[in-house]
Amino acid sequence: MRETIPPTKQRPTPTPLLQQQQQQQQQQQQQQQQQQQQQQQQQQQQQQQQQPHQQQQQHQQQQQHQQQQQQQQQQQQQQQQQQQQQQQQQQQQGLPRP
Predict the structure, then answer these.
(1) Which residue intervals make up region (Disordered) (predicted)?
(2) What is the separation of C-alpha 79 from the centre of its chain, rounded to a whole number of angstroms?
């Protein structure tokens, strides 16, 4: 998805564009996290409605565990992107100024 800029064109400082792209990706991931939290809330509501059926409750609890794992995976992805941002900032500082 990312456009790689050849090193010859990298001099006139097009690098801030890269930073903007990464910030947008971070925002998108945060939105995905919020969506997952909403799904968790919906499942909790379903549990309350289905209290008379204990067997169904157990199945729903298993589904909740799966969603929590997905949330953890997304948090790890966010950390990876932050590391990438730091690396790019270091590259920017190393570039020769025009």
Answers:
(1) 1-24
(2) 8
